[in-house]
Design goal:
three-stranded antiparallel β-sheet, 10 helices, disordered N terminus
């Protein structure tokens, strides 16, 4: 591969580095592309024939009475439920996959000396890091955005038609239905890069990236319902909330009076956007941490 000279224009150097990153990690790119295509097919099936079959089966089931025996396709109901869960968990796991890949990839480049070779032959450390963050971030953000959109379509197709369809506030459904997952993927990528830079080894970078991203997701899940003002009901009114309302916290007042803090379905987008903003801020801090770790690693050469 042709190396860049010190006099090469910055845009040409960045383009060269981008091509190098794609070439260096082409196996990961093939796996990512295959995963996106496989999940796309599954989500399209959920949006169409799998949901239609399950909805038809539930319609027949709901018409059954002790006096009126009827037949319904139980397998269609179970098939929809299983494949919806598989697809949802697979899409939800993308932030962890991004963290594991980034932690292992950055740790491997530093452990093997590939990074230092790039710094001496073709790039400054800062440019090296910027491109190695930007290229995978663009790839995973684009693919995840597509999958989130398709997942939302698949969920909406079954909502109010399939009796066992998840509500909007289901923890996995909520994130895989909106931009919070894209923001979390970027957090996972930055977290993995940071742990790879700090550990400078493949396996520790991979493992620590997974742990950091998992811990971040757990913290965000606790904070999320508190990021937008929720309603409160007490007494019998707690039990009168519609099933589409998320009662995220229940407690008991004096005299065993029940109390519930809740978010109606209209809070879906406010919760999505506030949580996404928080995650993007965290991703920015983790990215800053990557550059600080690089500066500590390279000293004055990180420019």
């Amino acid at each position: 591969m042709t190396t860049l000279t010190a006099s090469a224009p910055a845009p040409a150097a960045r383009a060269h580095l981008a091509r190098w990153v794609v070439h260096l990690h082409r196996s990961a790119l093939y796996v990512w592309t295959g995963l996106v295509l496989a999940l796309t097919v599954l989500l399209l099936l959920l949006h169409g024939p799998l949901t239609d079959a399950a909805a038809d089966a539930w319609r027949h089931y709901d018409a059954c009475t002790p006096e009126h025996q009827c037949r319904y396709d139980q397998n269609a109901i179970l098939r929809y439920k299983d494949w919806y869960n598989y697809a949802t968990l697979a899409v939800a796991a993308i932030p962890l996959l991004a963290a594991a890949w980034a932690g292992g990839a950055f740790g491997k480049e530093l452990e093997s000396g590939t990074a230092r070779l790039a710094w001496t032959q073709s790039s400054t450390p800062v440019r090296w890091l910027a491109v190695r963050l930007a290229v995978p971030a663009a790839a995973v953000a684009a693919g995840t955005t597509l999958l989130v959109w398709l997942h939302h379509l698949a969920w909406a197709a079954g909502h109010e038609r399939v009796d066992t369809a998840k509500e909007w506030y289901d923890v996995w459904t909520f994130h895989t239905n909106g931009p919070t997952l894209v923001a979390l993927v970027l957090c996972g990528l930055a977290a993995g890069a940071l742990t790879g830079l700090l550990s400078r080894r493949t396996l520790p970078g991979l493992g620590l990236g997974l742990l950091l991203t998992g811990a971040l997701w757990a913290v965000v899940q606790v904070l999320m319902p508190r990021l937008w003002p929720s309603g409160t009901r007490t007494g019998q009114a707690v039990f009168d909330l519609p099933h589409t309302t998320w009662t995220w916290r229940s407690s008991t007042l004096a005299g065993d009076v029940p109390r519930g803090d809740y978010h109606p379905a209209s809070h879906y987008w406010p919760l999505q956007l506030t949580t996404s903003a928080l995650l993007l801020a965290v991703a920015a801090l983790l990215t800053l941490g990557c550059f600080l770790a690089l500066r500590r690693l390279t000293g004055k050469t990180a420019s």
